[in-house]
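Supplementary material to the annual report.
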Amino acid sequence: MAMLSIRNVTKRFGGLVANDNISFDVEQGALFAVIGPNGAGKTTLFNMISGFFAPTSGSVHFDGADITGRPQYQVSEGGLVRTYQLVQLFKDLTVAQNVMAGFHRVTRGGVASALFRPGWMRAQEKHIADKTGELLDFVGLGGRGDMLADKLPYGQQRLLEVARALAAEPKLLLLDEPAAGLNVQETAALADVIERVNQRGVTVLLVEHDMGLVMRVAQRIAVIDFGRKIAEGAPAEIKTHPDVLAAYLGGTEAA
Amino acid sequence: MTSRATTFTRRVATTAAPVALVLVVLLLALNSNGYVVTIVGFAAIYGIFCTGLNFFMGYTGQASFGQNAFAALGGYGTAILTATYYWDPVAAFFVSMIFAGIVAAIIGYPTLKLRGHYLAMATFALGLITYEISIEWIDLTQGYMGYSGIPPLGVFGFELATEKQQLVALALLLLLGVWISTRLRDSRFGRALRSIAGSEPAAQALGVNVARYKLAAFVIAAMYASAAGSLFAHFVGFISPEVFGAAMVIQSFTMLFLGGIGTTWGPVIGALIVSMLPEVLRGMHLKELQDVAYCIILVSILIFAPKGIFALIGEGVAAITRRRATETAPSAAAAQAAG
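Predicted assembly:
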């Protein structure tokens, strides 16, 4: 069964149809990308999947459950974890503390256990600290744990955001334009991390503008233009699809 | 990454040194006259109040201009229960505190949906309403006249008759309050609060129930405020609406920002300094210029140490440990500096 299933999703803002009857499936373990020109409705789609707002009609199923219109923290609790187009780090915390905060979903404990620190709580804290080191090494930020997150270069802030999302042990990781604002080297480092994340068994849904990145990492691609899905397939098919070429290169609109 | 020596230095700076400072001030006060005891007592009470406020404004990054309302609930709760109904001070203390927590939960549930300036205005209104009630509901609060005849703090029938005995109790409660604050900050709970301060969307994306954690921080802050109000009532033996007026909000903000908002000991250090500053200036025969000097010091600290005094000390310690690390392992540190 598909990990994520989008069924006939439509979103209207007043008279504007931002997403028009979009459907696709992301299989478990896949690395799926959604691409499209500026203003095509990618971010709208992304926001509906992550629970930021509800679709006007249609449904979103994740991991066997209908999550249409559920609040975002519940969607995340279920294992669908997203990153943001504009980096949303906890700037006043260190790099390591940012990742530690990411473990919220997969740990437990409230006020009482924080005060009295029973054995399981201390073990959990130790586990978190160890895993944080591992994750920072994984994205190539090993040795930077004590730095303030704010002081990292932009490309590394992106990687930190990925590490923090991985701390939540997502079943599906949603990446919203992760290459935005990155230079070529930084994008290459990011592509490498995304591929290795997927190899760890995490299903990835990538919404991206950078064609180089998408063609390199994605196994399957859906193309959106003017709010509608115009194509879906493997990267090689998408590259030669006439509607996609028309949408990206201008050309005459296919009727 | 973090050597044992560095951890030790950090622990001295962040725990041992502030505890020692509190104890030294306490000892000095115990060997001084009644006036100094009063000033230090007020500092301790404000320290408790600000430590609570720090949960909501520091760790969680929200604004509340109405925390005085909960101090009033604690103060009047204790006054009414002990002076009129002859309750045991400890029972009155906890009942007021729980009551303040429940009120905070009921008011916070709808109010905390607001953000930024709107939340600030709503909480400010809360303080004003409480102030009006404490003036108008004369049967309950005795209005402008104030509530007198509140007994001193006592524990299980043993009354802390002298001011100095009470001061010791206040200092111990302050240390307990900071201990709780430190423990909660460095935990899953504290990380959830601080992630809200950092970025609400990101906190939500990581599965943090933002509304619930904000409410928890608000309730904790209200309970600290109530405790501070109760302690004030016992310490002075008299309360009136002015005690819990808007001036309390301004005073506590000054303490919080001066000492270091979001830090563990900042609120206490701020409370100590702001309480003592007028007396120090008076001692320097700057009495006429007291307010001016006071403001100059405040403004310069806010410009040159915007994260407050405690953060400034922390940065100093970090610089020293870094230098020490450079001396012992020059190549590693150089690599880190270059990276």
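Chain A touches chain B at residues 50, 72-73, 76-77, 81-84, 88-93, 97-98, 100-105, 107-111, 113-115, 117, 121, 124-125, 143-146, 161, 164-165, 167-168 (CB under 8 Å).
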